[in-house]
Amino acid sequence: MKRAWITLAVLATTLAGIVPLAQAQDGITIGGHIGFVLPLVTHVGGRTINDTADQFSIGFPVGVTFKGSGRMAFDLELVPSINTAPPRQTTLTVHPGLVWSLGHGWGAGARLAFDVNSSSWGFTPLVNHSWPIRGEHGFFKTYFIEADLPVRFNRPVNVPATNAVTFAMHFGLGF
Questions:
Q1: How far apart are CA 114 and CA 124, in angstroms?
Q2: Which of 141, 131, 146, 65 is nearest to 98 (CA)?
Q3: Residues 41-55: pLDDT tens digits?
Q4: Which pTM value belongs to this model?
Q5: Closest to 76 in 3D by CA, of 89, 90, 94
Q6: Surface-to-core class of residue 95, CB atoms within 10 Å of its CB (0-12 exposed, 13-18 middle, 19+ buried)
C-alpha cells in the first residue's frame, strides 16, 4: 500500500508540472473529477452477489481529464476502494480511458482497468450525464452520475480463473 501512495504522489507532482504547459497549447484543457462509486450487483463464478447487502464496497475515484477541441477526452482515473467482506481489502485500480461527449450533458466511453498488486485486469464501459453547477466562481463546475459495467479477468497462479461483471453507479463533481 505504501508503494501505491508513493506512485500517487509522483503522478500528482508530475501532473502539477504539466498543467501550465498543457494550458498553453492551443485548445487543450485540463480538468478532473472526484466522487464515489457503489458497486450494486456482481456476477462471478456462476453466482450473483448483491454488493450493497452481501459485501458492501465503495470506491473513491479521482480523475484527471485532458480534452482537446473535439468531442473526445482522455481521462486517467485512480480508484481506491474498500471492501468490507472478508478478507476486508483495500485496493487501488488504475483506470485510463476515453470519453466521448454525446451532447446535452451526456457522455459515453470505456476505460482499461489495472488492479494494483493483483492478478485482476479488465475494462469498464460507461455512460454518464452531467449538469452544470450555477455560479461562475466555484471550483467545481458540474455534478454527474455515471453507470459503469466493470468487467474483470482474474488470473491468479494455481487457482481457477474467474471473470466478474459488475453494475455500479458513480456519483461525483467535475472541475
A1: 11
A2: 65
A3: 999 999 998 988 888
A4: 0.82
A5: 94
A6: buried
Residue 120 one-letter amino acid: S
Instruction: Kindly state the DSSP code that residue 133 receives in the 8-state scheme.
Output: P
Cα atoms in the 13 Å half-sphere on the side-chain side of 99 = 26
Cell of 28: 487543450
pLDDT tens column, 4-24 = 545 544 444 444 444 444 444
Overall domain count for the chain:
1
Let me know how long the chain is.
175
CATH of the domain at 10: 2.40.160
* Count of alpha carbons within 13 angstroms of residue 35, beta-carbon side: 21
| Distance between CA atoms of residues 104 and 99, nearest Å | 15
Checking 157-162 for CB contacts under 8 A at 24+ apart, the result is 157/119, 162/44, 162/45
CA pseudo-torsion sign 160, 166, 172, 175? positive
Q: Please check whether residue 149 is in contact with residue 127, taking contact to mean a CB–CB distance below 8 angstroms.
A: no
Note down the domain range covering 97: 2-174
